From TrEMBL:
The lineage of its organism: Eukaryota, Metazoa, Chordata, Craniata, Vertebrata. One of its GO terms (cellular component) is endoplasmic reticulum membrane. SUPFAM superfamilies: Cytochrome P450 (SSF48264). This is Cytochrome P450 2W1-like protein. It holds the Pfam family p450. It comes from Amazona collaria. It is found in: Endoplasmic reticulum membrane; Microsome membrane. Heme binds at C177. Keywords: Endoplasmic reticulum, Heme, Iron, Membrane, Metal-binding, Microsome, Monooxygenase, Oxidoreductase. One of its GO terms (biological process) is xenobiotic metabolic process. One of its GO terms (molecular function) is heme binding. Its cofactor is heme. InterPro entries: Cyt_P450 (IPR001128), Cyt_P450_CS (IPR017972), Cyt_P450_E_grp-I (IPR002401), Cyt_P450_sf (IPR036396), Cytochrome_P450_fam2 (IPR050182). Belongs to the cytochrome P450 family.
Length: 235
């Protein structure tokens, strides 16, 4: 095989190679790769988009502003590219606020590689450490209205996009999410494409105030409650 053009082709390549004595491929490696692909690379994007749609339903005035900005920036009959975000500060702010507000993965465990002393505490090598990203993403000293969905958290007085240092949904440091760049691109392109095509509303008989933003307690990611959605095709 001269080139690896997908995850599937990579799998077949290592299948052919795994009988070599020095091969690093084994079933545990395969299982870890599948979990990374599905849970980290698919589940997180899908759940974030679920939240984004729910929040657009709950705050239709924000949804309208996003659609207006899309109309001004993206040519009719075309799809947005990731580069378009530079000319779409409000849409960019909305997506960042979605990620801040939902705290999708607030407690991702890490493991100490060496014996560590931190702020008077001794952390031996191999101990599990669980940072609380919620303590930053919902910190009242960093955000004007931490428990409210407010895209203005990422906009200056002139409406320009401003990224905050306390925006850490992908964690921080050398062991932060390796898929951060890809996730940002996918979220932007998918979100803009959805709002370019549809307007999302609650089902008849349900008002915006009826939409439930509480989170079930037993999920890997903090998913929204299942709720009916009306996707109305835009002209």
């Amino acid at each position: 095989m001269n080139s690896i053009w997908s995850w599937a082709s990579a799998f077949f390549w290592v299948e052919m190679d795994k009988n070599k004595k020095d091969s690093l491929f084994h079933d545990d490696n395969l299982m870890a790769s599948i979990l990374d692909l599905v849970m980290a690379g698919t589940e997180t994007i899908a759940t974030t988009l679920q939240w984004a749609i729910l929040l657009m339903m709950k705050y239709p005035e924000i949804q309208k502003k996003v659609q207006e900005e899309i109309g001004r920036t993206v040519k009719a009959g075309s799809w947005a590219t990731y580069e378009d975000r530079k000319n779409m500060p409000f849409t960019n702010a909305v997506l960042h606020e979605v990620q801040r507000f939902i705290t999708l993965l607030p407690h991702v465990p890490r493991c100490t590689a060496v014996d560590t002393h931190f702020r008077g505490y001794f952390l031996p090598k191999g101990i599990i450490v669980i940072p609380s990203l919620t303590s930053v993403l919902l910190d009242k000293t960093q955000w004007e209205t931490p428990h409210q969905f407010n895209p203005n958290h990422f906009l200056d007085a002139e409406g320009n996009f401003v990224k905050k240092g306390a925006f850490l949904p992908f964690s921080t440091g050398r062991r932060n999410c390796i898929g951060e760049s890809l996730a940002k691109m996918e979220l932007f392109v998918f979100f803009v494409g959805l709002l370019q095509t549809f307007t999302f509303q609650p089902q008849p008989g349900v008002s915006e105030s009826d939409l439930d933003l509480t989170v079930p307690q037993t999920t890997f990611t903090l998913r929204p409650q299942p709720q009916a959605t009306c996707a109305i095709l835009r002209e």
